[in-house]
Amino acid sequence: MWADTEESPDFLPLDDSEYPYAGIPRLVIETANFTQVRDKETKIPAKMQIYGESAPESDVIDFTIRGRGNSSIGMSKYSMKIKFPEKREMFGMPADKEWALISNHADKTLLRNYMTFNLARNLQMNFVPKCAFVEVYLNRDYMGVYLLTETIKVSSARLNIPQDGKNYLVEVDAYHDNKDTVIHTANKLPLKIHFPKTCDDSCQQPLKSFMDQWEKFIQKKFQYDSLAMHWIDTQDYSAYYWIEEFSKNTDSNLKTSVFFTWERNGKIEMGPVWDFDLSYGEYKNYSPENWYSRSNAWNRHLFKNGQFKQEVSTYWKEHRTTFLSMADSLDYYEKLISKAAKNNFKRWPVLETTFLWEFNQRYDTHAEAVDSLKSWMKQRIRWIDGVQ
Question: What is the C-alpha to C-alpha distance for residues 157 and 93, in angstroms, rounded to an integer?
């Protein structure tokens, strides 16, 4: 155990006798004085070393670590956010200081976020977080399989929008903190402003005015041409809509993790996509049938317009094979992480658990969980095809 006043050790010990190398990188992390990571506010000094199969593949790296997420922060296997003092490349991903370690504890396939990011990338959405599977050892305890993921932020290597004071990155977030910059629309929709990082009243007012007018516009009978010309990029909106609708993502009801960008005098552009561990029938919305995202506060108005509805339907027909390919690729990715998943579910034996809120489906094996997800996706595609 190192004290935060000591020099960095030459290496961090790894005992993998119980959880052996499984074909993906290991992040060995120790916090100062083995301080526990449990809340989102406390930034704890820590050290990390990346291990391959039998030896370290990096020097010991200094950084800070804290908890992250809304529901996931309270789970036994919790998510974390890490920040390096200088930008670092991670597993071929562009250099940055800030990264997320997503636990995917509620997802018994461990694949939902990873696969959905791939789907968004294949649909050519503007910015999609890159990610890599890793196993995490924290303070000499095995924590399981995590997804090391780019965070959503405005920068040249991530969401590359002009930093000219006219562009905004916004999240619909009912779970915002008091320290966040938040405005409420006329319909009381909470909008957390992630960028600009400092946004005073003069910065907030144009966004609020636009969003109030947007809500007013869609609640009345409107012309499609006006919608496409002044309010949203309809192709971008269709891609985002179908990712959320196809997955029946719990958060797509405009509660949290719904991101969009907006430029003054411009249009809403949806995305990036984020947070899909409680989707594809894993939490609520078990059935692969019926609409879900279509009934949210914006979509229930938009779909009253026949031309908009037709464009969204056409988008599905033109991109259906991309969604089907996602389902067909699950077998490959199950094999990719099968050994690591064995370690994960030895540490967290939850495959058969159904009595906690985050666990609703019972499986005997990780492969069975993945098969169930694949079946759900294909049933979902068939249902959508049948009602288009």
Answer: 9
